[in-house]
Write a structure and sequence with these properties.
Layout: H1 2-16, H2 32-39, H3 51-62, H4 67-87, H5 93-107
Helix pairs in contact: 1-5, 2-4, 2-5, 3-4, 4-5
């Protein structure tokens, strides 16, 4: 399951997000403020419910582990991203994929992969 999930993420990143990095006159860029808005679900569900919190609720409710937990996390991230983009009238497929992947990575803490292990263990 982990290999399958890794393969799906790689395919989405290669084929879906390549346009985000294209050097064009009308290039698509991801706005950090929009990422934060999506992570907070736009404040529509109250300030206490966020994408990571909603993901944890679903994972505990469904008792998901390993690859299923990441699949649920990606699903929640994608639904939140697409919904916020639709509500703001900014949805395109490229932005949907880009924000979904970025919110998924941020919500799971993968941006912290450079942290060092504690010394002495």
């Amino acid at each position: 399951m982990k290999r399958f999930l890794f393969m799906v993420i790689c395919i989405l990143m290669v084929f879906g997000a390549t346009g985000l990095f294209a050097q064009e006159a009308n290039a698509t860029e991801l706005d950090p403020d929009m990422i934060e808005l999506i992570l907070k679900l736009g404040g529509f569900l109250g300030s206490a419910i966020t994408v990571p919190g909603l993901t944890e609720m679903f994972k505990r409710w469904l008792k998901a582990k390993d690859g299923w937990a990441y699949l649920i996390s990606f699903g929640v991230s994608a639904i939140a991203s697409v919904a916020i983009l639709f509500l703001l009238g900014q949805f395109t497929v490229l932005l949907g994929v880009g924000y979904s992947l970025t919110v998924f990575i941020t919500a799971n803490g993968w941006y912290k992969f450079s942290a060092k292990a504690p010394q002495g263990k």
